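[Automated response] Your request has been received and processed.

Submitted sequence:
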Amino acid sequence: MAEAVPDALGRRPEVAPPAQPPAPTAPDDAKVMTLVEHLTELRRRIFISIAAVVVGAIVGFLLAAPIIHVLKAPLPTKEPLIALGIGDAFFINLKVALVVGVVLAMPVWLFELWAFISPGLTREERRVARPWVPLALLFFGVGVLLAYFILPYASAFLFGFQTADIRVMPAANQYFDFVTTLFLAFGLVMEFPIVLVLLSKVGIVTSKRLSSSRRMVILGITVFSAFATPGGDLVSPIAMAITMYLLYEASIVLVRAGGR
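Generated structure:
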């Protein structure tokens, strides 16, 4: 910086201090929290989410018998399922209750997640993301219903390999493992477009990038669908792959419509 030249009386003119860069601002209407406060807040919201699952699981355990009857209905056979272990019937009820608890607690999970991350967003980001929170719950429910719709066809495919020498007598534990995993997998897969749209809002993905990655995404969807559906049939992975691909194409349209 050039030194100030003194005037005729030997006085040096005052030089204004260099401008300081503006201090970073916190998100709109947000209170700056310390790391400890963030961890405390996260622990509190996780505790509330777990408590919601426990309450939902209690409801599911009380209603386990009629729920099991509904879940067994898609099977081609009307014979009772076989419990091979002495404690299998209890653990099946517990497993069904836990899945019901997760489904019933989903609104609480979404609310707690939104309440935790929203203070870190700007007012505009909150405005954009807020409508997608209830839609995430709706999409999860649609995924569970889609899995229930697919279940009879997946079961019929597997039962179709019976012969005079091979009779399919499904064990209850294995069947409900398959059903609960299928429901959760389809429910989570339906969140696919919401994640992509929200990522586009913060500039991480664009419609052009999604379109150019289509081949790799199709490969990834195929591999994921094969591993995410545990039944060993061909119906559920094909249905999941088709669903994910359609959701991906819908995401491209939504992202492009949003100006990205």
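Summary generated for your ticket: The mean pLDDT is 77. The chain has one domain: 35-160+171-257.
If you did not submit this request, please reply to this message.
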